[in-house]
Write a structure and sequence with these properties.
about 350 residues, 9 helices, 8-stranded parallel sheet, elongated
Length: about 350
């Protein structure tokens, strides 16, 4: 049995089409685990949308997506000198973040990344004159800016993009197209009004594929229900049951991403207090699982196994039957589902 993602396909596609209508020139982003859907499925969905370009994370992802999408495929990770050579078709666009990389990719389609407040990669203002003399050897597709999600100091994403447009224009660099990430629809309209001779193309992933949370639900299948008495040992580490109850064996383990969590940015007194409380519970082997039954999120009985999770259900709660499914709150960008069911 499986860890499954059930999708209301009509509702999901309605959201996708509405968002695409809000963001003209959208470039759908598909990378990593395909936001839980798989990149190949998202590439086929992009074909249904009728877009001309999609974006992926790496050259390895591009090599797979190219077989499911006939348009242009942009690789977001910048080219690195000496990287593994992955056979790719001519319609693949490489991102470059240095003048040297531009010179390395003679004859290739390229987008030039500009350094932003993200401080992750990109050319700087000091590179512009050298860049102008290097673009002749490549098939230049435009510039790109990748902005942060949060702006705690009150910075404006629109103004940051505008500053780059002005710098590039002053350096007399071709400015027909700029690809942007994390700019709102309102911000994009402002940019189009300020710079009517530049086409701004939004690259969107999370909000496109996962923007309507109600269109999808993750569920793990109950594989077994085992009665257990207080003090009875169980599991890999032979811990003692805290009370009479049942052990639920549920599909979904570390191989799926269950129980794995990325570090989070925590702000404010209450979120920090909750974080401290969770850490304190974890030190006494009390960790909430993502699975729910009878209206409550249930505790892991022990850390999840590779393919399954072991949950503890108190004796006063009627257990599910093998074959029933438990709803699960999972992070889609880190979860590998056994199957995605569109209905």
């Amino acid at each position: 049995m499986a860890l499954s993602l059930y999708v209301d396909s009509a509702r999901w596609r309605k959201h996708i089409d509405q968002l695409a209508g809000t963001y003209p020139g959208i470039v759908p982003v598909m990378k990593g685990n395909g936001y839980g859907f798989d990149n190949a499925r998202l590439a086929e969905e992009a074909s249904r949308m009728g877009v001309d370009t999609v974006a992926v994370g790496t050259t390895y992802e591009a090599a797979r997506v190219k077989d499911h999408f006939d348009g242009r495929v942009m690789v977001l990770t910048p080219h690195l000198r000496g990287e593994d050579a992955v056979p790719l078709p001519d319609r693949v666009i490489r991102t470059v973040a240095s003048v040297q990389s531009v010179r390395d990719l003679v004859g290739t389609r390229v987008v030039v990344s500009c350094m932003t407040s993200m401080k992750r990669d990109g050319i700087t203002q000091e590179d512009l004159m050298a860049l102008r003399g290097s673009l002749e050897g490549v098939r230049f597709e435009g510039f790109s800016v990748h902005l942060p999600l949060d702006h705690p100091d009150g910075g404006s994403p629109t103004d940051e993009v505008s500053q780059w447009v002005e710098r590039l224009g002053a350096a007399k660099l071709p400015l027909h197209t700029m690809y942007v990430s994390h700019v709102s629809a309102t911000g994009l309209n402002t940019l189009r009004e300020r710079h009517p001779h530049t086409t701004f193309r939004p690259r969107i992933g999370t909000d496109l594929w996962l923007g309507d949370h109600g269109a999808m639900v993750a569920r793990g299948t109950v594989l077994d229900v085992v009665p257990i008495a207080r003090g009875e040992r169980f599991g890999y580490r032979q811990r003692k049951a805290p009370a009479d109850g049942h052990l639920l064996v549920v599909s979904g383990g570390t191989a799926h991403g269950v129980g794995l969590e990325a570090p989070k940015t925590v702000r404010g007194v209450m979120p920090r207090a909750k974080g401290v409380a969770r850490a304190g519970l974890a030190t006494v082997n009390r960790t909430l699982s993502p699975f729910s039954w009878a209206g409550k999120q249930r505790w892991f009985a022990e850390p999840p196994h590779m393919q399954v999770s072991l949950l503890f259900l108190p004796g006063e709660v009627a257990p599910p039957q093998p074959g029933e499914q438990l709803d699960a709150e999972l992070r889609h960008t880190t979860t590998h589902f056994d199957r995605v069911v569109l209905h």
